[in-house]
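Protein: Acetoin utilization protein AcuC
Species: Actinokineospora globicatena
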Amino acid sequence: MGDRVGVVWDPALLGYDLGGDHPFNPVRLELTMRLARGLGVLDGVEFVVPDTAADADLGRVHRPDYVAAVREAPMASWDVGHGLGTADNPVFDQMHAASALVVGGSLAAARCIADGGVDRAVNLAGGLHHAMPDRAAGFCVYNDCAVAISWLLDNGFDRIAYLDVDVHHGDGVQTVFYDDPRVLTVSLHQHPATLWPGTGSVTELGGPGAQGTSVNIPLAPGTRDAEWLRAFHATVPSLLAAFRPQVLVTQCGVDTHVEDPLADLALSVDGHREIYRTLRDLAGQYAGGKWLVMGGGGYELLRVVPRSWTHLLATVLDRDIPVETALPVDWATSVRKLSPNVVLPSVMGDGVDVAFQRWGGGREQPVDTVIRDVRNAVFPLHGLDPDDPRD
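Structure follows.
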C-alpha cells in the first residue's frame, strides 16, 4: 500500500510555532519524522510538498475579516481580537503564512485522494480542529480539517465521515458542519465537565436538518485503553455502516496518553497503535479504503508523540511496527541533547495489554453508561436499534 499513500511533509511546516514554552511545540513533528526515518518507515516515500492555502479556500470556513486579522496581527500594535494574542493563541511572526501552509497540507492530502492517485493521505502537521469561522481557539488558527472536508464536498464526495480521537472535543469541525447532513462528525474525548472546551455532550446531535450527524462520546477522566476501545467499538462501526461515507477523515491527536500534561485520560502508545489499525480497517470496510489522516494534539513531546505518530505513519503505509521494536540509538541520543534529563522508553510501546471486552457481553463496566447514552440518543436517528449488540 505504500505506493498508494500520500505523505505530506515539508520542513516549512515547522513554522507553525507559537513560541517560547508554549505546549504546541513543532519539535514533536521534527522528532516524529526523524524517528520514522530511523525505523525505515519512510524508506522510498516521496513526500507531497504543500502549497500555502489561498484565501478562497480559507474562506470555505473562515470569515474574510478573520483572515485579514490573522494576516495583519503580527504588525498590529492594538488588540486584534478574534481570539488572537491570548496565552493559548499568541501572535507570532508569519502567522498567516504558517497557518495557511498547514491548511495547504491537508488540502494537498485531500486532492491526492480525490484525484485517484492514492487511497490514503496523511498530514501530521494538520488536525487544528478548534479554530472557528471567526476566531482562533485552542492553539488553532485555521481549521484545516474543516477546509479539507469542504473542499472534498465540492470535488466528488457527498458523504464524509469525520472521526476525532483527540482528548479534546472536535468543536470547530462540529460547528462548521452542524447543519450539514453530508458530514458525520464523531468525537471521542474527555468529558466536557472536566476539560476545555467544555462542549461535546451526548445531546449535541446536529441541526434540524442533520439530526444524528453530530455524535459525541464523552469519557471520564482516567479512562484506559480497554474502556476507550469498548466505547469506540460499541458505537462507531455501526454508525459508519449506516452512514456509508465515501471517505473517512480522521484527526489523530495523541493527548489521550496517560503522560500527557494537559488532560486526564490514560491511554498508552500501544492503545494508540491499536486505534490507528482499527481506523485503517474501518476505512477499508466502510469508505472504500479512502482515508484522510491529520495529526492534532499531543504535549508529551519527547516520550509519547514521536512514538505514537510514527506508529500512525507506519499504519497508514502498511508498514506496521511491533511495539517491542527498540528505539534507534542515534534518535535517542539526539533527544537527550535537546533534554539531557529526559528518561526515554527503550521500545516503541508501553507494554500495555490492549485487549478489551466488547459491549453487550460480560460484566457491567463504568464506561457502559456513556455507551448506552450515546446509543440511545443517536442510533434511532440512523435506523439502528440501541439495545441490539449486533448494531
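Remarks: The longest helix spans residues 95-114.
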